[in-house]
Amino acid sequence: MLPTKFLLIGSASILIMAGVNLLGQHSVQRSLTVEDSIQPGREVREQPTRLVPGSNPGSNPGSNPGSNPGSNPASNINLSALEQAIIQETNIARMNPQAYAAKLENLTKYFQGDLLTIPGRIPLKTQEGVSAVNEAISYLKSVSPASPLTASSGMSKAAADHVQDQGPGGQLGHTGSDGSQPWDRLERYGEWKQVVAENISYGPNTGEDVVMALIIDDGVPDRGHRDNIFKPEFQVTGAACGEHREYRIMCVITYAGGYEEK
Question: 261: which residues sit within 8 A by CB, 6+ positions away?
C-alpha cells in the first residue's frame, strides 16, 4: 500500500527545538541542538495515476468549514482534555490564520535576543529568536484558511501506541521500538486515504503551546510541522499525549486526507 500513497513526516528531532525550547517548560541548559538529537528523514511516497478520495463517511472528514472553530471536534471520542485542546487549537488556526497571528504577535515583546522571557516561566533559549515568530506571523497573514479537521478514534489510538512505546524509555522520533512507522500504526486501526503525516511535540503541556510551537517551527528551515497543520488536503486527525521520561510530556498528532476506521 505504501508506494501508492503520499506520505509526509515531520522531523521530530527539530520539532524538539520548536516544542521544548520555544514554549516548553525546560531551562536553557536543557535545550537541544540538531547535533544533539536524532534526525529521522522525511519520507515522501506518492500515487502517480489517481488519488483515493479523501471523504470518509465514518468520520465525516468533509465537515462544514463554516462550523464554529471553538467547538469541540472530539466530543464523541475518548480523548484527554489536552488532546482535545490540541485538535481544537489546530482548527482555530486552520480556519482563521489571520486572526491567529495576533497570538504570535503577543509573544514578540518577550524576546531578549534569542531568549524568550515570558513572565512566570523559565527563560527559554530559541534557535532563531524573534525572527522565527515574525516569519510565522507573515505566513499566517498570507495563507488561505483551511477546513477544520475531524477527530478520528483510530488515528488517535495509533498516536497513543507511539506515546506508550516512547514515553517510559524517553525515546525520540517517529520509528517505534518494533520498527513501525506512522503509517504502520495508522493501519492497525483503519485505512488512511490520499496523504498522511505525523508531528511529535516533546515538552509543551497545553494545547495552545503545542500548536503555537508547531506553527513557529523554530530551527526548522522548511517549516514542515507548520505545513502539516495548514495543509488543505488533510481532513482528519488524531492526537495522543502522555508522560515522557526525559521531557515530562509528549504529544503525537497524526493527519490524513481521509481515514476509514476498522
Answer: 58, 59, 152, 153, 154, 189, 190
